[in-house]
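Aim 2 progress. For DUF4212 domain-containing protein, the working sequence is reproduced below.
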Amino acid sequence: MDNTSSAYWKATLGLLSKILIIWFLVSFGAGILFAPVLDNMHLGGYPLGFWFAHQGSIYVFVALIFFYAKRMGDIDRQFDVHED
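Predicted structure tokens for this construct:
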């Protein structure tokens, strides 16, 4: 594997690692682990921990999909492996 391939996969795996960490923190962290702390705040009349577990995590997941698509396109163009 040459240096370009290694750098491409390093950038790709770095992006995936960051997205998975955010995904974990939002779904498991905000919805379960930090729910008692977050429940002291309210959003739309509901405790924030409950809101993250039922609504907020979905919004974050959709945002992560768009972020991933944009960043992967940038990485592909950077390493000249993009599709026209």
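Helices lie at 3-33, 35-38, 48-78. This observation will guide construct design in the next reporting period.
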